[in-house]
Amino acid sequence: MNKNMFFTILLFVAVWLLPSSGAAEIQIKQKENIAFLGDSITYQGNNLNIGYINLLYSALNANGIKAGRIASGINGSRVADMQRRFERDILRRKPQYLLLNCGIYDSLQGGNRKAVLEQYKKTVRQIVEKAQQAGMKVYILTATMITENPRNAYNKRLIPYNDFLRQLAKEKKCVLVDLNQDMQTRLNEIRKLYPKARGNLLTTDGINMNPMGHMMVALSLLKTFGLTDDQIAKASDDWMRRRYTFYPAVTVSIKEYLKLSEKAFAAGMDVAAYMNKLLRDDLRK
Questions:
Q1: Which DSSP category does 4 fall into?
Q2: Is the pTM of this model over 0.90?
């Protein structure tokens, strides 16, 4: 794969992201409601212009599908927090779909790790069962990485949480969206193209997504919903124009951010480090 093709493929083709579902039609229908229950990644997905939920709806709209949105993402949420607001935020609004994204902040808790994990399993199971009893189709999203190094101790602590989600999805016949595996695959592909790349490549802080990370999540979900590459590409112009503000208060379009990322990765840095270098070099002139 040519380096110059990488970002084009990321946005417009997406064949390498997930195998084609082969679906004859998009699973989400007109006027159906999609509920998103999660933590800071869900919050930013809905509230940032470049957030994955906004990108997802951009693609649905581009294909003539006007679906309702119920977003309940709160920074730092653990699954017990999600359970407490589930009825108020989700259940009473009777969505057709629930996308559940949890695990990161549970795995970061202190105390007895075994007891925390067992309580997590119990609570997730209760949410899934209640959603299914209400007639929702449940999509279980594995938790994305904590730091972008799979060998980091925090990521190792996350493994049993995601293993449980995979097992529960199979047991309860939920749709599994393995974002953790997708993220590891994406990072490996970036580092293969840019061996010197260091720092946060898909996140801003090791947890929360940058524009490339949000696109990764959106593409994973859109593929799971049955959209083809051509259908996803219909949203490309809108995605490319979307604006993103990052440190130090620089606002760029996604298209500009991708170009900046390419330069940063080639220089062996992430975007934040590359911007700091540009500023320092400019001040030294």
A1: H
A2: yes
Dihedral sign computed on CA atoms, order 91, 92, 95, 101:
negative
Mean pLDDT (10-residue bins), the chain, 285 residues: 45 41 73 97 98 98 97 98 98 98 96 96 98 98 97 97 98 98 95 94 97 96 95 94 88 93 95 91 79
Q: Say how far apart CA 81 and CA 74 lie, in whole Å.
A: 9
Q: What gap in Å lies between CA 218 and CA 214, rounded to an integer?
A: 6
- Residue ranges of domains in the chain, CATH in brackets: 3-11+28-240 (3.40.50.1110)
The pLDDT of residue 10 is 53
Q: For Cα atoms 268, 244, 9, give the angle at the middle one, nearest 5 degrees.
A: 60
Cα radius of gyration (the chain)? 19
Distance in angstroms (rounded) separating the CA atoms of residues 261 and 270: 7
**Rounded Cα gap, residues 74 and 38, in angstroms:** 7
